[in-house]
Design brief:
9 strands; 185 residues; 31% strand; two-stranded antiparallel sheet; 2 domains
Length: 185
């Protein structure tokens, strides 16, 4: 049904508008259509919700269709950029442009260096997944980043256990390390 507009006349009480009964019949018809479709979560002429929306340009109201295939600025899930880092003579390199870095603790980490730090005004967050090898009891230490109360980083020591550390960088000289969790097995 098309929207029914009430004729309100040219001036108040000039007798040219719809009689009150006709006006409220139109009001009831308009509301009935809206409530029926709202209750069924569908739009007029539809049997299901198929990407329609109500639009108005200020002079008219009509049903529009959403073209999902050609949407501009549509949300998309991007693959997470991951990497694997190896420990060499106690040193590990954390690439801050990666979302996740996996490290197997084959020896103690005594030095952590960072690459691809964000430029001023930008930030990055990198999650490092540390897995103890079959020996276990490996430790992680380093400088060039801040930790809570300056207490350093803590990792679980159990064989094959997993610890998570997140590095939040808001430029090359401001990197904060968070112990996210440990003892995942």
């Amino acid at each position: 049904m098309a929207q029914q507009t009430i004729n309100i006349g040219a001036a108040a009480n000039d007798g040219t508008g719809d009689p009150i009964r006709s006006a409220f019949t139109k009001v009831n018809s308009n509301f009935t259509e809206l409530y029926e479709h709202d209750a069924n979560n569908v739009l007029p002429g539809q049997t299901g919700n198929s990407g329609k929306y109500l639009t108005t340009d200020g002079t008219s109201t009509s049903w529009g269709t959403i073209d999902y295939a050609n949407l501009v600025n549509k949300p998309t899930l991007q693959p997470v950029d991951t990497a694997t880092a190896a420990i060499s003579s106690g040193a590990v390199v954390v690439d801050l442009s990666k979302a996740i870095i996996k490290v197997t603790l084959t020896e103690n980490i005594t030095s952590i260096t960072f690459t691809n730090a964000p430029v001023a005004g930008k930030s990055s967050s990198t999650l490092v997944v540390l897995t103890q090898d079959g020996t276990g009891s490996r430790t992680v230490a380093g400088t060039g980043f801040l930790t809570a109360s300056g207490l350093g980083l803590s990792v679980s020591s159990a064989i094959n256990s997993v610890s998570l550390i997140s590095f939040l960088a808001y430029d090359a000289s401001n990197i904060i390390a968070f112990n996210v969790g440990q003892d995942y097995q």
